[in-house]
Amino acid sequence: MPSLSRRDGEGTALPDASGLSPWLRFRLVTEAEVLAALREACGSEISGNAAKAFQRAVLRRAYLKGSFEMRPGLWLAYQQGLRGALNRVATEAGVRNLWQTACEGQTGLADFDDSAQTLARQGHLSQSARVAFVRRWVGDLRLPWELGADFFLRHLLDGDVAITLLSWRDAMGKTGAAPDIPLPGPCPQGGAWDRAAPTALLLHEDDLNPDFLLDGGLKPDQTAFLMAPEGRSPLRVAPAVERFIRGAVADCATRHASALGAIHGPVRGDGAVDALVSWARGTRAVQIVTPFAPVGPVADILEALDARLQAENIRLIRAMRDYDARLWPLATGDFARFLRARPALD
Q1: Same structural domain, 251 and 303
Q2: Tell me: the pLDDT tens digits for 47-103?
Q3: Which of 14, 210, 276, 282 lies at 20 to 30 Å from 4 by C-alpha?
Q4: Spatial contact of 162 and 68, defined as CB atoms under 8 Å apart
Q5: Residue 182: which region, alpha, beta or left (left: phi > 0; alpha: psi -120 to 50)?
Q6: Residue 85 burial (CB < 10 Å; 0-12/13-18/19+)?
Q7: Which of 301, 207, 198, 324 is nearest to 256 (CA)?
Q8: Prediction pTM value
Q9: Residue range of the domain that includes 152
């Protein structure tokens, strides 16, 4: 994982924030930890163009996540649009051939083809390359944007529903092709667990760093792990993505083994909810605590799981990090407005 070094604000030690993104995506390292390391590297105040740009890139993750969380209909609309686009791939030879050519990086557009091949090979693109890719996909190839976002989600190690879909919409806005974004609704809040009740812990790929729960006094008797790479796309997710997620789960289980109790899983796939209900029943816990999962595949599974657990008289507690609880509600306007509101929280 890239690291921060102590340099002045204009030094070259700061990595591209997108280079940290896979670890931030699964919260093997948290945004709060990265921002704290940045302040330590820069001294008492974050100054200099490079340091400020890095800080903005990290904070933009919270902005996009919060914005998407208050607009959950965007996830459903994207899934519906993707189904329609894949139907066109299946029924229209011209769309199918162009889509296949684009995914293989054989369009004849040199910069685009290089990015497509790099993404398929490495699972990563710099932020500037991602923006250029979107503009080519929508502006030059004129393919449905949902197919391009799906290509990102299937191949990016840091594929994140909120950040990917809103970043596509933002880049498309510069081409005049962005769909409208609805007004924000209320921001969800996390739940609190009963410290005296028998408890089990459910960790999932959206947050594989339980320190905030363990430091808060959580002492689970058992812990299960949930993976949901299949939820990224109706198509096959790249093997490198699955390997990274499996490695992230294994890393979490190893680092926190002494605090997690008996470990179960990871569970995944169509039978995940049934497997988790059976596990929860066997733990004899009256509450299952899990890190809050933002809108996306994991949250969809947890919603179904919650309904099933209620029938078992087991509570599912979605615990939200303080960082998310403070920053997500501020993402009601544009990013500049978000940044103006944020310093009051420091």
Answers
A1: yes
A2: 667 888 888 999 999 999 999 999 999 999 999 999 999 999 999 999 999 999 999
A3: 210
A4: yes
A5: beta
A6: buried
A7: 207
A8: 0.91
A9: 73-173
